[in-house]
């Protein structure tokens, strides 16, 4: 099989011929049809997350490693204990836990400290085949287009899980999405369909804001404009009850935390990096909640895919590229040149 692999963090990917896995027991071998490219892939490719202040969280991954956790593919082989039909096609849930720890047992497999995530610790969809440890991680996609389907395993799942944490939503002008790149745009679509809210959107890119407005955002603000902060506070009548930050940078957090009403929730999703700096007394005085949200649980995934199969979530723009363009796609995503998402298509 062919895989575009990271041999040295931050450097061009290398196309390698590697042995095709032979599934055993409950394992399932999936031939990759498409694989979405995520901002997390950019960080994993670089080998570290930016913690701010010149500090980095290094990722202890064995090289070479194969990126790609937004996989849609076809089952071509199974272990003896798997019963899934050969030739069937699925979206793959990639956040694989140990199954034995307290987190896994309570359903939060995505938070497992011994995770073997596809596209991180385990080879992912930048290769033309992936090995899935159990058929329970396979989700039918209905009639969704193949180039869009894989994005629900991370972009869609991440947005859905974060929006669940932001409940309840009382009105459109009390909910804000900060950052309408690929995940934020998916969040806008899911907010409308699953949570019956048309949120305010904030970004630094007028083109993205226009697209968000055309896709149902109730109002759009460019945070680079000096007057935006006061205009948002006025429009929200004193601040948002829920603000979901799909950027996760020092700039986005510095701007967004000033937009919360008393009792509001600030949910950080993006992994751009940096430090959160704010006056601590304002957190208890304003009764504000600051919470992280990381991908989503298996239950979240099943709930989301039920909406997907019912065609209740409007599609977002997804640019199709050949898998051979994987490295350039990482660069373009990092430089903000991709509107919506990009998906690598395997031959």
UniProtKB/TrEMBL annotation:
Name recorded for this polypeptide: Alcohol dehydrogenase
Cofactor(s) required, per the database record: Zn(2+)
GO cellular component, one term: cytoplasm
Keyword annotations: Metal-binding, Oxidoreductase, Zinc
Organism of this sequence: SAR86 cluster bacterium
Residue stretches making up the Alcohol dehydrogenase-like C-terminal domain: 182-308
Database matches in InterPro entries: ADH-like_C, ADH-like_N, ADH_Zn_CS, GroES-like_sf, NAD(P)-bd_dom_sf
Top-rank taxon: Bacteria
Protein family (similarity comment): Belongs to the zinc-containing alcohol dehydrogenase family.
Domain Alcohol dehydrogenase-like N-terminal, chain residue ranges per copy: 26-136
Transmembrane segments: none
GO molecular function annotation: alcohol dehydrogenase (NAD+) activity; zinc ion binding
Pfam families given in the database record: ADH_N (PF08240), ADH_zinc_N (PF00107)
Keyword Zinc assigned: yes
